[in-house]
Write a structure and sequence with these properties.
The protein is an alpha/beta fold. The protein has helices spanning 13-16, 77-86, 93-109, 129-140, 152-155, 158-170, 185-199, 216-227, 246-259, 267-273, 289-294, 318-329, 344-349, 373-378, 386-389, and strands spanning 3-6, 19-21, 24-32, 35-40, 48-52, 54-59, 112-120, 144-151, 174-179, 203-207, 233-237, 262-265, 299-301, 365-368, 383-385. The chain has an 8-stranded parallel beta sheet with strand order 6-7-8-9-10-11-12-13. Strands 1, 2, 3, 4, 5, 14 and 15 form a 7-stranded mixed beta sheet that branches.
Amino acid sequence: MNVLVPRKLIDDPGAFGGAPWDDCLHGAPVIKDGRLIALTPSTGAPQRMVLPRLVEPHCHLDKCHTIHRLGQVGGNLRHAITRQFEDKVHWTEEDLRARASKGLAEAQANGCHLIRSHVDWGTDPAPPLSWRMLCDLAAETPGLQLAALIGANQWADPAFVSAAVPTIAATGGVLGAFVLDHDHIDTALEHIFDAAVQHGLMLDFHVDEGLGDFNGLEAIADRAIATGFEAPILCGHAVSLMDRTEPDFARIADKCARAGMTICALPVTNLYLQGRVEGTPDRRGITRLRELRAAGVPVIVGSDNVADAFCPLGAHDPRAALALGCVTAHLDPPLGDWLSAITTDAAAALGHRPVTVDGAALSDLLTCDVTHTADLVSGHTPLLSAEESLT
């Protein structure tokens, strides 16, 4: 059997063996003690591609698959927030478990072994039913992380913070915040960074989720730099970077790089919600992927909302999200250069050591019967377990 391995998913391509083939290395796999340790030269044509298991870095298992009871929903971010809040009257434990399990199974079927779901916390510091239920699901599901999605106004309230944070920490959660033109962003950021340091937690922000004059991202970077924060910081959306001048963008991107932050692009939901006008939108609701990466900021891609008030379509499928990102942001071949956005870089953003193909256990690898990374990203060909397909 002859395989391809994308170069960007190999820690040491020079030592791994094989021969160049577009943006991959080509050869016969050498497997020892259940690990893929090298490629040997081969004259035959490649049959399949090998890659690490995928990562879903940003989704909402508490909201997913509710579109069937929302009626003719559609609109901007504020409208979606209102409509989804109205749906919470249906959020029983049975409903939440059924929908979240469906979304989780969908992600796993699409090759994911690490998944981070945000969970709406609400205005009450006590944990909502959705948090308690999803914590039970996470206890049954290795690789499922939960991020408490709390508004900046709540984070600015010391009483709310002191009541809510211990529960999040005790259940192994991630501290999350929704930051969009709030009145007390600096105070909110002070509290969330202090809480993260005190409890040793990662941070995850929904930030600047809109076109226009928003700049929560720079405030987060400033706080991270000032505090010397060392745990992973993931910032989703950052759509307003599209409206920044080049000098402003360069300044903000440099701060994000120095702060060690990762930006998560969410093309499916952002394209659906942002830039709405009476007719066809003429703006792209997506952050600046290529420019951020060029500035040294890791960029990853997530599915975000699936079949809910924020987006009626979609799937928990990182390949589909990356494919849409390629079309929207003009990410040209070699597409192997962007596979880290749904594998190694995404794993690091979630606080995990990235798995590269060289030396990886077969249980941590997937195969796909394609011979070009563009075919892999297109998602038309199923992903298979390497344990079954390489042995």
